Amino acid sequence: IINYVEQPMCTNAWDEYALIIRDYFNIPIMLDESIITIDDLKKASDIGVRYIKVKLFKQGGIKELINIIKSANLLGLGVVIGNGVATIISNIVEIEIYRKYQSFFFGACEANGHLKVYPVKSLDQCP
Length: 127
Hints:
By secondary structure, the protein is of the alpha/beta class.
């Protein structure tokens, strides 16, 4: 089972994404790098994107991240959270937002970048 194909083309290729979604609707697209602002979120919804990925640093802060998550839910978009190349501080914030608003998300939290940057067996081992 394929849940989605993540960001298969470059950022802001809106016309190209619209064509793919129109011609291959059975392939669920998730946008990541293309989604920064609420305007981007609306563009994605308008062309039929089904999933988005959000990250603390990309959305600009905690309030902005929560706002875009709630807005995506109102538009019926599946939301995935997590940065695979972040540090422990950023990932902990994403994990806590995921815990607090878990019903807003599709699938598991992907805030695992700290494991690549500073490999540990559990968050309790972090400095």
